[in-house]
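sorry to bug you again but im stuck and you know this stuff better than me. what follows is a protein written twice so to speak, once as letters and once as structure tokens for the fold. id like you to explain what the token line says about the fold, in plain words if possible. anything you notice is useful, everything is just below.
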Amino acid sequence: MQILPIFSMGALLCAIVFTSQAAVVKVAVTSPHDVRETPVSVVISQDKLLNAAPFGGAEGIPGQIEPVGDGQMRLSFIARDLKANEKRTFSVNTSAPNSPQSVVAVKQNGANVDFLINDKLFTRYDTTTGPTKPYFYPLFAPGDKQIVRHWPVEKIEGGTTDHPHHRGLWFTHGKVNGTDFWLENDKAGKTVHSGYGAVRGGAVYGLMQATTNWVKPDGTKIAEDAREVRVYNLEPGTLMDFSITLKPVGAPLVLGDTKEGTFALRLADSMRAAVEKGKTAEGHILNSQGDKDAKTWGKSAAWVDYYGPVNGEVVGVAIFDDPKNPRHPTTWHVRDYGLFAVNPFGLHDFDKKNPEGAGDITVPEGQNITFSYRLFFHKGTTQEANIAQLWQTFATPPLAVLE
């Protein structure tokens, strides 16, 4: 089990004021495999960044900076067209003109947060309408295709209305210190939004940090979490990096063995891989082990991709399990009717050969646990979207070094 320090929500972006001249930084990037396009970052001291070669024009590619503590800054940019084991040097300009293909705007909308790409809504983090949890809705694949089911947020004629707790994209679990946080009813626990840290867009990514309290039906707070979301708009599709750090409050935190969890989407009805009520099923599921459709349920895999038609065009979403996550490669509560969930806890539910409670993870009080995932929203099938290659880039990212 990976135990990490919880991040401080007070570590907001410090003010770094540049003159009309931009800071241009040379960064050498080497990848162990071919890469079409990927986010890359390197840590640089604030002093070195401020003293970097100034340039008053548009030289180089856009870069984005944020503090990481002790006078250090993270410089991020999008690296393109990397060849395996070849070094390529990028000139990264911290105030180069933004290109429409890279800018992600992030705006607080009341108690919610909107992520916009090319001035169009990509997703909204909704903390106000879910009866038991914050969630992301709507959520669009390339081509303005809404990839998540409308229900229960919106009722669409002919749409399915099962599982009303399947709303958009969310993180909860069905057994936390014995309380069900998965369902939406009077007996369920609630994950209650408690505040935002950073909420900002940029030339490379959009960023949101938020905190959440885990509260039992009797009002007892048993945990809190810090979640961070970064959205990158790449030419092949949209990346969303999601991480969440859970911290017990008042007692150890037991994340129990159940299939009902955990990081999940409910996909559009048209993407289903199962035939129901005479409807044609045109969606498909594929995992890193080669399992397909219903056979992916409960299996361990480094990644799973789920694709199918939305308004006449095939789109999909892949979820990558971070190799640093507990129990990597994780198990998956992915159903051919459209539920798509990462669940590292349901070992007994997924395989009755495992004893009850085999999937429990206990986090001692004073410690915490982190889970991180990358989602890729894409056009086409798994093969057409090069999901296996994108997984390689995520699992063994390029190495960036200052020159």
